[in-house]
Amino acid sequence: MPRGDAEAVSTPFDLPDVEWTPVSDRLVLARRLVTAVGAVVGLAVVVAGAVLLWSPWWLVGGAALLALEGWQWWLAGRQVRAIGYAEREDDLLVRRGILFRSLVVVPYGRMQYVDVSAGPLERWLGIATVQLHTASASSDATIPGLRPEEASRLRDRLSRRGEARLAGL
User: Transmembrane region positions (predicted)?
Assistant: First the structure.
């Protein structure tokens, strides 16, 4: 479908006047470290299998494993760059995805509570995850890879806005 300069084709993911806040690049490192651990374990199995039960198929399996791990390494950066959030007056927007894109809109009045979590790897890298819990069990409003101070600020701000909207103020 041709379009002119004055006419813009929008998708459900292109929102006018929305300034997206990206997550920390440390999330890329976290995902790549997990990928590297998986590669090391997989290669250890391949090497042990090749030593104990020699077959050229072990080399093919090792090469395929390395190719898959390399692709996951590259993909981690792209996936993290696609994650972002935006605070608007009445709701929070969370986007993610490259091939399968997702945009979650959470009205502040629907929030029940805000959860901040960080596992050992996340704490070591200085990042945390904010998860919004709403009345809907199927909402996936999770923002991974935030600096702890940003996660705390967002938790407090969203909680205040949620309470204000719930109270009808």
Answer: 33-51
